[in-house]
Design brief:
Isopropylmalate Dehydrogenase, 10 helices, alpha/beta, 35% helix
Length: 324
């Protein structure tokens, strides 16, 4: 029995940013390929964007080449590109929650979220979450989620994310790293269809500590954790010196790299494939992707935003949803 077609729900994100225009451009690129449903105020789409209002996600179950299906929400007033309006904050948050509900209730295949502006959400609606990922985890009722940045060239997972560098050794614990490895392994298996994932574990210190001369974490616990999990059947290598993990021959030996902190993970993927990187949240009970860029207020409304990351995020959400 074939699975019924379902759309990828796309939350509007910050209206004053480039989210509406890259969503419209992604629709133009993928209209014949992926069923889509945009959640937001249709007045915020670029002028001339072909769209049609729908009352339910089922009305967007098939590709809609002529007009973008929109589940409309009145945001109260139009957007001013480049200037976040706190009045829009409650509706921006509601569009995320509505997208999650659509996926969890089986009315959408996956959720792709456009970038938000956290200060505007805090100023306008008292938004208390550090970011998108944490809010999605709260909506889903899960504690441990993992941020993966993925492209055709590389997949990376930072074990710690938006914290100061001096806090990394404090927050990076055997429990934290084990959970990141477990969630990444399950995501590669269940979403990406990799039966036996190969994970490369980066060292925390230069040269992976070089036997303790450049840091002790590798010797004191990271080596032991890797060895223990190898014995449990995980396909791990490391800890490896991060400066030799990302050239072409090294990347061919693993399916994803587990990195110890934000820049150790994001610098290589943004250098290798800046425009096509996609943010995938692992550990949620639904598929969520996002373009790997922010609101870009400086170019919003000028018609020059590159939609490639949003195109890839929608395409990946569709593919992962079908795999699942």
């Amino acid at each position: 029995m074939s699975r019924p077609a379902l759309p990828v729900a796309i939350s509007c994100g910050e209206p004053a940013g480039i989210g509406p225009e890259v969503a419209a451009a992604a629709f133009a690129a993928l209209a014949h390929e992926v069923p889509m449903l945009w959640l937001g105020d249709p007045r915020h789409l670029p002028e001339g964007t072909p769209h049609r209002l729908v009352n339910h996600a089922s009305e967007a179950a098939d590709p809609s080449p002529d007009a973008l299906p929109v589940l409309a929400q009145d945001f109260g007033r139009p957007r001013q590109p480049g200037v976040a309006d706190p009045v829009h904050a409650p509706q921006v948050i509601e569009m995320i929650a509505r997208g999650v509900a659509l996926v969890q209730d089986g009315h959408a295949l996956a959720l792709c979220t456009a970038p938000i502006h956290k200060k505007a959400l805090k100023d306008g609606a008292g938004f208390s979450h550090p970011g998108h990922t944490e809010y999605l985890a709260a909506l889903a009722g899960v504690d441990d989620v993992v941020m993966m940045l993925a492209s055709d060239q590389l997949r990376v997972v930072p074990a710690t994310i938006h914290i100061a560098l001096d806090q990394v050794p404090l927050q990076l614990t055997p429990r934290t790293l084990r959970h990141v490895i477990e969630i990444t392994h399950a995501g590669l298996r269940d979403l990406f269809g990799i039966a036996a994932p190969r994970l490369a574990i980066a060292g925390l210190n230069p040269h992976a500590g070089e036997g303790g001369t450049m840091g002790m974490q590798e010797r004191s616990w990271i080596n032991d954790l890797v060895t223990q999990m190898q014995g449990e059947g995980y396909g791990l290598t490391g800890p490896l010196p991060a400066d030799t993990m990302f050239h072409a021959a090294a990347r061919a030996r693993y399916d994803a790299a587990i990195c110890m902190y934000h820049d150790q993970a994001l610098i290589p993927i943004k250098t290798l494939d800046f425009d096509k990187g996609v943010n995938v949240t692992l550990g949620l009970p639904f598929i969520r992707t996002s373009p790997d860029h922010g609101t870009a207020f400086d170019i919003a409304g000028k018609g020059i935003a590159n939609p490639t990351s949003m195109i890839e995020a929608i395409r990946m959400a569709h593919r992962l949803g079908q795999n699942r």
